[in-house]
């Protein structure tokens, strides 16, 4: 941006407004590498002398992408635009002309390309081709690339101001985006605030316009247009026009709140550009020093009324700007709004919380104020307005424990256990059991864990029960009790408190495998079955102790893969047959007739 009181460097101006390779019409020293083609193994033989390590390049890109990059390089489709010590800029001719940039060297480097493949999958063939081209350049050509812009600078300075002006204006006539940039730069330097606001507002509107849904591959270009305008607004703030910047950002946020609903922001580009605007907004507020009460109201509305979280924690981020008056207003607004939030309690039926978004935002705001003042009771009171889940009780109990209030922590934990006795949360159960142990009530911890295990048995609870034992004998007692209970459930239909996420037989087998009781595991599998995946795990664990059972599982798996068909399944079946042969040989069994695969 052109600013008053700054020396104007014509090349700096060009570098700001053009991709570097767009300045090439002033210099004919293009570094195209069309000839000669290098032998396919040249890069391999001299990899140690290269700027970019070939093995690292191949690993980063993958064999297929690397091979296509080699072809691009050998066909001379790469033009090195700029080559610096830690940065390379190039244009690569593919289905379109793409801008490639590499940073770093040796085995530590990264890249960015304007092609769709980079957005979809990362390191692309164009970046591979660029790296290989740099590696292939001789010292003289590298020096030429490094000095390329020095020559351009000399050329531009020789043209004089009038010559440069005519050149830039001529380029702007052919490039609408450049024309827009120049108009904004001119307005920023010469126009009054009213005129400038109108022009920048129009630029923000055009940049954030979506027309229709913006697909994934087009989002990047859309975001770049917005970033360009935001850079101009940041320039206004830096040049002392922060108040004007705040007005423009108000318009930007209103536009972006709607625009983000109409884009595929899988890569988060839209979110990042919104966050960038928030950073500029904070800087503008610190410079313009708006009325703190008015600012508090505006920030509060953005934090509470929007489903987006870009202004989450605004009262802390803007604390120095808001001051005592603004913070007081922020807190008042939160307390007033909090009065309208209905308390939530445990209920047997699912209730739709139509205040969820506002509740979440207000709770965060009020907790932030209370925590800054060290008001633990205040935080507890805020959290106690929502006790609709067992985890809500856990959050309060944990807060009490963090502040050495063990008695209160246990009270909240036990109340949560009682309220959600029919729908327990294992996290709260484990917390309460640990707290019982901490205060010397180990029998109560054991009773709680066993009661829970018999309602919703699981490996984590089992391991927790075992961890509380003090010797091998008591650990074995826990093991036997758990297995006996599970054995008693075998064949029964899953009850209301049946094993969570698996059948009794499934959990029995996993627990028995954990304890090395493979015979018991196979007995249950034989009588009650289990999933194919678990059966495979058991077979792999039993190759030495129960080879017949393991091999039978493998044979069944081979037959299933062959019946499914397909090259991958055939290869997997072939590999598994080979593994079965090795198992038999390791066990000293005679060679059996080979399993015939009807492929």
Regions with little confidence, pLDDT below 50 for 5+ residues: 1-49, 496-501
Structural class: mainly alpha
Q: C-alpha Rg, in Å?
A: 34 Å
Number of helical runs?
A: 29
Q: How are the strands of the largest sheet arranged?
A: 1-2-3-4-5
Helix percent reads 55-70%
What does this structure look like?
- The protein is mainly alpha-helical.
- The strands form two sheets. The chain has a five-stranded antiparallel sheet with strand order 1-2-3-4-5. A two-stranded parallel sheet has the order 6-7.
- The radius of gyration is 34 Å and the shape is flat.
- The chain starts with 9 loop residues before the first helix and ends in a 13-residue tail after the last helix.
- It has helices spanning 10-17, 42-45, 54-61, 63-74, 116-121, 125-136, 139-146, 148-174, 176-190, 193-208, 216-238, 242-259, 269-288, 292-305, 314-317, 319-338, 356-372, 376-383, 390-402, 406-419, 426-438, 442-455, 459-467, 472-489, 504-514, 518-528, 532-541, 547-564, 567-586, and strands at 31-32, 78-83, 87-93, 97-105, 108-113, 344-345, 386-387.
- α14 packs across α16 (319-338).
- Helix content is 65%, strand content 6%.
- The protein contains 29 helices and seven strands.
